[in-house]
Predict the 3D structure of the following.
Amino acid sequence: MHFLDQAKIFVRSGAGGGGAVSFRREKFMEYGGPDGGNGGKGGDIVFEAVAGLNTLIDFRYTQHFRAPRGKGGAGSNMTGAGGKDLVIQVPVGTQVLSEDKDEVLMDFTRVGQREVFLRGGDGGRGNLSYKTSTNRAPRQHGTGWPGAEAWVWLRLKLLADAGLVGLPNAGKSTFINAVTNAQAKVGAYAFTTTRPQLGVVRHHDREFVIADIPGLIEGAAEGAGIGDRFLGHIERCQVLLHLIDANDEDVATSYRIVRDELEAYGAGLAEKPVVVALNKIDTLDEELIQALSAELEDASGAQVIPISGAAQIGVDWVLDELLAKISDSSGVVPEDDEGEDAVEWSPV
């Protein structure tokens, strides 16, 4: 399945049905009078966050969503049927943005979250509702209120407890493969990871989700390399794990490059708790590991953990540090408030 974290779609709620013009015609009713019913309400556009989705790829092929309109009223004061709501299912972590992307209109952060985005138009009035003491046989009626429409952007920000950052080839994919079942692609060249990866870590009878994003290079905030587009996927993380390749020419410079890009991106990433790890130490001797760790501690002002994802050295230590900074969010019960009269659109 291809990964897509942005999609532009068009949505329109249903228009209300027209009111009826009708008069009673019964054998023993000399003055039957008007009996036209009101039109039905149009369907709403509803977004719902569901489990099991982690991409917006299906919205690339289905971009227009229109809820059905309400039915017209009828004689005998019968109200028209309302149009069914159109429920659009999206992955957890999806945001609905305005067409210019300047405003976040909705943010779906939990399974089962369900929000009405566009309300359907009300039905028009039937001629019975226009009857007065001076207008006993009205022929006017309402045509029904139109629905609302809008172009919006869907933006997916993956929900993870911890996020991996570092330069390309810092060993992020190897690390996530070592601690989860993510099966991320690993290669001896830059930008092996081209899309975010999620994995579930099980450590000390606890579970947490870790996200691996494509590597950052100097100038990523200005679009260099893959750029900083995927940094949005770690905005919701509680802690960052910053991996530095022990084989880099200058580990302190490698650290500062990534930190500068996080600060340039903003969104509070530079203020998040961070665990700093010197990776790939299985290729070095003990003396050099200590020297590089000391150099990195001076640059970061934080404790540096020497690790090797490939050789499983220091991995438990890192996971302990991550767990210490992740609050326990277990026990969340997904909501289930699905309406009975709804038309669901699901990319599943």
